[in-house]
Every structure is written in structure tokens, then in C-alpha cells.
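User: Can you predict the 3D structure for this chain?
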Amino acid sequence: MVTTYTVLKTIHILATVAWVGGGAILVMLLARARRANDTGTLVALIRQLQFVGPRVFAPSGLILVITGIWMRADGYLGSHYDLWVVLGLVGWAATFVTGNFFLRPTGERLGATLAEKGPEDPAALALMGRILNVARVDQLVLALVIVDMVIKPT
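Assistant: Here is the predicted structure, written as C-alpha cells:
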């Protein structure tokens, strides 16, 4: 039987897959291109990330938290103060803030630097490295949130 809970949970999981899975693939591809010193691929992937971030990752993150709060508000998930709920919200907030207030503006700066100085410029390479390192940590936090959601520590 399809209930509000099953619909919300399905949407919640699909949003998680889009946000975390898409980000993980991009981070792996960026790391691979960086190890290979393939600046052309790095630049292309950064541009794809700039496109996908506001169109897929940010909306997915919002849908994910809205459906989670909705499931909690309808009484499906226990108390708002359960440790796993608090940890999930803290992790979500950390990655949402990182994406919107570090990765996006740094990516925009990188885009301007690439347009002005080219992909071999040391400033552009440094920005690419910074974006990749922060994105790796961001993906780790998201993975920990998933573990938290599965284990549900109390």
C-alpha cells in the first residue's frame, strides 16, 4: 500500500542518490584528472560542476531536507531530538553551506580566472585544488550522514 510515508521516503532517497551519487562521481573524476595532470579535463569537469551544482545538487539537498522534516513532522521518524536526526541535520547543513558559500563562489572565481589567465595559471590550478579538497571532505560528510541515517544512533 502506498502511503504518504512511502512517497516521502522514496523522494528522500532519490534526492540523496542525485546529490551524493552525482557529487561522488564528479569528485572521483576530478581527482583522476588532477592525478593525470589533465588540465583540459579538469576545466571541463569544473564547468560541468558549475552547471550541475545549482541545478541538481542544491535542489536535491533542499528536497532531501524538506522530505526528511516532513516525515519527522508527520510522526514517522521519532523525536526531533533523536541523536541521528540532529547529526543528519548538522551534516546536511554543513554540506549545504559548504556548497553554497564556498564551492559555488570559488567555482565562479575559478571560472573568471580561467577566462582571464587560462587553465595553466598557478592561481587557477590552486583554486582547482582547493575546490577538489573541499569537495572530498564534503563527500565524506555526506557519506557519514548516510551511515547515520542507516544506523540511527540514539
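The chain has one domain: 4-151. The radius of gyration is 18 Å.
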